[in-house]
Amino acid sequence: MIRTAVGEVRHPGSARAQRSFASDRRALAVGTVAAAVTCLLGWRQANLSAVAWVLLIGMLTAHSTHLATHRP
């Protein structure tokens, strides 16, 4: 969040571009599938701490999918 705020101060509009994956349906679908698979495979071993990994993996997968499909 701090990096996003500093980037926004330096380059107005950069935060919107950086967080635009949240409105990309394809990226969200891929991130959700990755999160679901991680949850199914990791829940037995990690229990409640799997939730943090699921959120992290889902968001990173959605972000990288968005970047791969929306290259300039």
Sketch the topology as an H/E string, one letter per element: HHHH
How many helices? The count is 4
Low-confidence regions: none
What is the overall silhouette? flat
Helix content: over 70%
Rg over CA atoms, rounded to whole Å, is: 14 Å
- As a percent range, the share of strand residues is under 5%
Summarize the biggest pleated sheet: none
Which class do the helix and strand fractions yield? mainly alpha
Mean pLDDT comes to 83
What is the strand tally? Answer: 0
Distance between the termini: 24 Å
SSE blueprint and pairings:
Layout: H1 2-10, H2 14-18, H3 25-46, H4 50-69
Helix pairs in contact: 3-4
Give an account of the 3D structure.
Helices cover 78% and strands 0% of the residues. The protein is built from 4 helices and no strands. The chain has helices spanning 2-10, 14-18, 25-46, 50-69. The longest helix is centred in the middle third of the chain and has 22 residues, at 25-46.
Q: What are the defining features of this structure?
A:
72 residues; mainly alpha; 0% strand; flat
